[in-house]
């Protein structure tokens, strides 16, 4: 097979160096292309791995035209062939790519491989799997004609919803904002509130210039640290809609995100009412001054507020584009009003303004106002509490993150610049006002200084005005008394009024948009299932119309109440709680050291973020301590609720990363702790297979490992490795989820191996971590050993030998019904499928009922169709009943009951412990742990052990003394003296009949025949072996008789497991011992420790 590629294909210097091109590979098919040779020498040339003489693959980079690339997409996109290029050869119909001049399925790195499913910014595609790369290409990857792009991208046809979204976006249907209009403008408008115009002068009068600047900078420090944290989180991956809720929930998880998201959305909704009422109050003041009141002051506020919010709702519902235009207009008005104030400070003042305390810039006024002048019980923190809400609003841009063109870039730039600009404006207005206006003024132009008056350092007196009367009676003007100082100082007073209108309306509009957007994102995540109704969006921009209506209803309710003085501190605290959690999110993500925490914004520090979180919490109490307590109580309640509901989401939160870090550190710390017998606990590997198929085996193990030790449910997959690995990987999460759902404190582990024994060997050696390694193997008794192949029996007994070789304890559990219910589960699954089919048929019939009587002949055929379906349904029901009856006979209900016997609580009874051999104490420790559990606590321990007839009392006292030192309570001790007696004939005959099929009987054959039989069936029991271990066989049979006599009525039997010498006792003989030992008894645990102490009586 030849492959001819002209080197001229690679001559374009603008082509991506890592271009993936489709290569044709066929007999006698030449796709050579011609091109003009460039006279310039090559800047770079690289030859392929093949011999250059054969002119196979040649990569050259030099100036040239792009005409040869008409059939290819550049910049790393997938190559698209034209009609002359065949993406699959004629022999194997397999797909080839050229990457780095080499034929391979390996694709180059591409952003589409890393997208989430359903991403609207691009279609997610799947790279070739490792299996496709690793296995032979011809066997696994087939390409159908016309599907070149699909195979090249490793992805099939994208979903309809994704395609639709992509097409709509390409048409320009989505309205996306840049960082200026989307973030900067919104944040500035939200931060600049009515406080700027009617309270800042009072604040600077109370605190003075020095402390006033500190108050502004302290509030700015809180918002700046929060802005840095927000920027860090926002640049750590793609940000969707939801603003503060999205940032917190994806960082700290649904518990924190769900709790703060709900109160943050509610706070924004009530904030709409606050801002609208502020606007309405200003309008009512104007009406009052013009004697144009409609009803009375309160009702006028309600009327104007209601009309205003309806207009704002209309702007919001009209779409984000209209809302953004309105915001820009309001910002222009606001900026003009602020500039108007600064112009007014340099316009020469009039006598009327002087009488009201405005003297233009004066050094004496600046000096007089520099220090604090707190009055009326105000102090630094109370004034700070009044100012701080004026600094909030920094999340206005982040709250519409879903509508930003590039949230990762827009949120940091817009938010931080908005904080900088608004802080400068606050400082400028505060300092200018304090340098121009005195604290108290009468407003009377005749209050001038009389000659000879002692000014006592009063700046107003030095400037010719006597305002000393303000010390004895309240005055109406000055920084401390007049909230309209900015209007008085400004060049044109009505512009300040327009600024107040702009500030209130813009903040109300921003909150009216933010609340539904945040609430919609919260509802989409379905954390509160009852609120999922509000997740639906409408129109090209997915507008949350239902959320707008809900926000409108909440805001209208608070407007009609018109008592916002009580709720206002709670709203401020809700915002502060959000800021605190954003800062904590940034700290937590950094502290967890997750490799996924890689924010593009680098100007943050984890400890500064933690300080910011603490600062926010402190400010909450400074503003209003009872409101802070209410906020914490609501957040705690919602946190507990979401934690209890456990929403099925996985966002890769920093909490998950920290769990891992803490677990890793604890595991590492545990490795430095030496093992001590006092701290021994059974750490078990349980060979359950899939946990749901042997629940009883897991339950009994869980009874003595729950809250005490490690429990790992293990499964061994045997067969072709590829199929085993696929099945194993696909079921791993499902089986671990089953354990979690059924409240089993256990892990699931699986291995693929050539044989069952090899798999268990791997598990015994490699399971666990550090000190948390298994020390006990638990497996069910192989009930079908007599029908199993010799290899299966060898594997089972080999596992027992391996456990002892690796110095693990061993527990073999046997119940009368066995453990495996996999066939019952299969039947149940089949019945459920048939039931679903039956329900689907019923639905079909109901749908056809609607058409049955229509249009005569059509109704007739519909009726016939219904009869046909009904017959089919009857046949299905008949099948169901038949299957049910068959399987109820085949799978006895007692199997399911037996497999739930360890789940129920056991009443008063006994756990009989036959501690026949000292194995280090595991045989007595396991039943003791069981009696500490709720399900077994009413059962008493009865101890059975061997002894001599003439020393029964001494043996009993010795055992009682030993157990007392171990602090293990017991109900009775029985010394069994006749263990070594021969069993009765019936029992021994049963044993002989049981092993008869597995005996070699070589003594009855001549030597040659006997040797041949041994070679053909080396696993069989020889006569010599049976004779050598006759006494031990007698003991197992006799023990069963004693167990039948003494422990038939016990709730559970724990018995010392006999050990077979490896290579001496045959597998079938050992299985016969276990069979006869545990036959026809209550549930029994055959236990053998590793002969290392697990009990001690030393303190």
From TrEMBL:
UniProt xrefs under InterPro entries: AA-permease/SLC12A_dom (IPR004841), AA_permease_N (IPR013612), SLC12_C (IPR018491), Slc12a1 (IPR002445), SLC12A1/SLC12A2 (IPR002443), SLC12A_fam (IPR004842)
Record GO terms (molecular function): sodium:potassium:chloride symporter activity
Domain Amino acid permease N-terminal: 89-156
Bilayer disposition of the protein: Multi-pass membrane protein
Disordered as annotated region, ranges: 27-46
Top-level taxon: Eukaryota
Transmembrane segments: 256-280, 301-320, 326-347, 380-402, 414-438, 545-564, 570-591, 603-627
Keyword Cell inner membrane: no
GO biological process per UniProt: cell volume homeostasis; chloride ion homeostasis; potassium ion homeostasis; potassium ion import across plasma membrane; sodium ion homeostasis
Entries under NCBIfam families matching the protein: 2a30
Family stated for the protein in its record: Belongs to the SLC12A transporter family.
PANTHER family linked to this entry: SOLUTE CARRIER FAMILY 12 MEMBER 1, SOLUTE CARRIER FAMILY 12, CATION COTRANSPORTERS
Name recorded for this polypeptide: Solute carrier family 12 member 1 isoform X2
Organism of this sequence: Alligator sinensis
Gene: SLC12A1
């Amino acid at each position: 097979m030849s492959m001819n590629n002209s080197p001229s294909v690679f001559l374009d210097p603008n082509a991506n160096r890592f271009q993936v091109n489709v290569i044709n590979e066929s007999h006698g098919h030449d796709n050579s292309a011609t091109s003009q040779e460039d006279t310039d020498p090559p800047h770079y040339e690289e030859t392929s791995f093949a011999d250059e003489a054969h002119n196979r693959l040649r990569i050259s980079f030099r100036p040239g035209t792009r005409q040869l690339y008409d059939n290819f997409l550049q910049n790393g996109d997938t190559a698209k062939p034209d009609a002359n290029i065949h993406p699959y050869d004629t022999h194997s119909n397999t797909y080839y790519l050229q990457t780095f001049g080499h034929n391979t399925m390996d694709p180059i790195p591409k952003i589409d491989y890393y997208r989430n499913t359903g991403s609207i910014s691009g279609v997610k595609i799947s790279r070739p799997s490792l299996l496709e790369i690793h296995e032979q290409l011809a066997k696994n990857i087939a390409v159908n004609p016309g599907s070149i792009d699909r195979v090249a991208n490793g992805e099939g046809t994208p979903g309809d919803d994704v395609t639709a979204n992509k097409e709509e976006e390409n048409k320009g249907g989505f309205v996306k904002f840049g960082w200026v209009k989307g973030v900067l403008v919104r944040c500035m408008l939200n931060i600049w509130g009515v406080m700027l115009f009617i309270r800042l002068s009072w604040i600077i009068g109370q605190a003075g210039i020095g402390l006033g600047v500190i108050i502004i900078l302290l509030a700015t420090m809180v918002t700046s640290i929060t802005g840095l944290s927000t920027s860090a989180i926002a640049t750590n991956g793609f940000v969707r809609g939801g603003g503060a809720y999205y940032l917190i929930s994806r960082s700290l998880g649904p518990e924190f995100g769900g709790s703060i998201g709900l109160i943050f959305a509610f706070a924004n909704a009530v904030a709409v009412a606050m801002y609208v009422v502020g606007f309405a109050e200003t309008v009512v003041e104007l009406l009052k001054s013009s004697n144009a009141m409609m009803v009375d002051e309160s009702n006028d506020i309600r009327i104007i507020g209601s009309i205003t919010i309806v207009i704002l709702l209309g702007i919001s519902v009209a779409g984000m584009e209209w809302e953004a235009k309105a915001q820009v207009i309001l910002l222009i008005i606001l900026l003009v009003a602020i500039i108007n104030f600064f112009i007014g400070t340099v316009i020469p003042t009039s006598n009327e303004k002087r009488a009201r305390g405005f003297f233009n810039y004066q050094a004496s006024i600046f000096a007089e106002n520099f220090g604090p002048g707190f009055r009326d019980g105000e102090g630094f923190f109370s004034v700070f509490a009044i100012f701080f809400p004026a600094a909030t609003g920094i999340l206005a841009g982040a709250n519409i993150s879903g509508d930003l063109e590039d949230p990762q870039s827009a949120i940091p730039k817009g938010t931080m610049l908005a904080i900088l600009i608004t802080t400068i404006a606050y400082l400028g207005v505060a300092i200018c006002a304090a340098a121009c206006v005195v604290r108290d003024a009468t407003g009377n132009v005749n209050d001038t200084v009389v000659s000879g008056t002692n000014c006592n350092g009063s700046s107003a007196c030095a400037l010719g005005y006597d305002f000393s009367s303000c010390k004895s009676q309240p005055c109406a003007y000055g920084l401390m008394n007049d909230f309209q100082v900015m209007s008085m100082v400004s060049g044109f007073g009505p512009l300040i009024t327009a600024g107040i209108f702009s500030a209130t309306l813009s903040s109300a509009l921003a909150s009216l948009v933010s609340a539904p957007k945040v609430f919609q994102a919260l509802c989409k995540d379905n954390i509160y299932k009852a609120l999922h109704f509000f997740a639906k969006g409408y129109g090209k921009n997915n507008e949350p119309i239902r959320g707008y209506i809900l926000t409108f209803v909440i805001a209208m309710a608070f407007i009609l109440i018109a008592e916002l003085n009580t709720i206002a501190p709670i709203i401020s605290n809700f915002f502060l709680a959000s800021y605190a959690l954003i800062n904590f999110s940034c700290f937590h993500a950094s502290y967890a050291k997750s490799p996924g925490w890689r924010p593009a914004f680098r100007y943050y520090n984890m400890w500064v973020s933690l300080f910011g979180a603490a600062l926010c919490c402190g400010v909450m109490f400074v503003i209003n301590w009872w409101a802070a307590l209410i906020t914490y109580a609501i957040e705690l309640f919602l946190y507990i609720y979401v934690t209890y509901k456990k929403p099925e989401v996985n966002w890769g939160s920093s909490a998950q990363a920290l769990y891992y870090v803490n677990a890793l550190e604890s595991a590492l710390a545990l490795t430095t702790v030496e093992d001590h017998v006092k701290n021994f606990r059974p750490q078990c590997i349980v060979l359950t297979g899939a946990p749901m198929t042997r629940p009883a085996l897991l339950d009994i193990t869980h009874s003595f490992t729950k809250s005490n030790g490690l429990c790992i449910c293990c499964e061994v997959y045997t067969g072709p490795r590829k199929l085993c690995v696929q099945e194993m990987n696909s079921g791993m999460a499902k089986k671990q989820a089953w354990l979690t759902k059924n409240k089993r404190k256990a892990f699931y582990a699986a291995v693929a191996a050539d044989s069952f024994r090899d798999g268990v060997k791997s598990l015994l050696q490699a399971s666990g971590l550090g000190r948390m390694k298994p020390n006990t193997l638990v497996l069910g008794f192989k009930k079908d050993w007599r029908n199993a192949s010799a290899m299966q029996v060898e594997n089972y007994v080999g596992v027992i030998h391996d456990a002892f070789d690796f110095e693990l304890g061993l527990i073999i559990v046997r119940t009368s019904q066995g453990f495996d219910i996999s066939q019952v589960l299969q039947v149940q699954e089949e019945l459920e499928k048939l039931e679903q089919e039956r329900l689907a048929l019923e639905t079909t019939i109901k749908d056809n009922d609607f058409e049955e009587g229509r249009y005569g002949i059509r109704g007739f055929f519909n009726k016939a169709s219904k009869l046909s379906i009904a017959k089919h349904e009857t046949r299905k029901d008949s099948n169901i009943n038949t299957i049910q009856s068959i399987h109820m006979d085949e799978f006895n209900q007692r199997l399911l009951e037996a497999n739930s016997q360890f789940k129920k609580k056991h009443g008063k009874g006994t756990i009989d412990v036959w501690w026949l051999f000292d194995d280090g104490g595991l045989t007595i420790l396991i039943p003791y742990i069981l009696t500490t559990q709720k399900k077994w606590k009413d059962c008493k321990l009865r101890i059975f052990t061997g002894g001599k007839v003439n020393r029964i009392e001494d043996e009993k006292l010795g055992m009682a003394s030993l157990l007392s030192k171990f602090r293990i309570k017991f109900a009775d001790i029985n010394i069994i003296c006749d263990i070594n007696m021969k069993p009765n004939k019936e029992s021994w005959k049963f044993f002989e009949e049981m092993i008869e099929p597995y005996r070699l009987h070589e003594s009855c054959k001549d030597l040659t025949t006997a040797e041949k039989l041994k070679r053909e069936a080396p696993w069989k029991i020889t006569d010599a072996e049976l004779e050598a271990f006759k006494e031990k066989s007698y003991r197992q049979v006799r023990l069963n008789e004693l167990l039948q006599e003494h422990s038939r009525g016990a709730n559970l039997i724990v018995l010392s497991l006999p050990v077979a010498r490896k290579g001496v006792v045959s597998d079938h003989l050992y299985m016969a011992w276990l069979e006869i030992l545990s036959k026809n008894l209550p549930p029994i645990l055959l236990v053998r420790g590793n002969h290392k102490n697990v009990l001690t009586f030393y303190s």
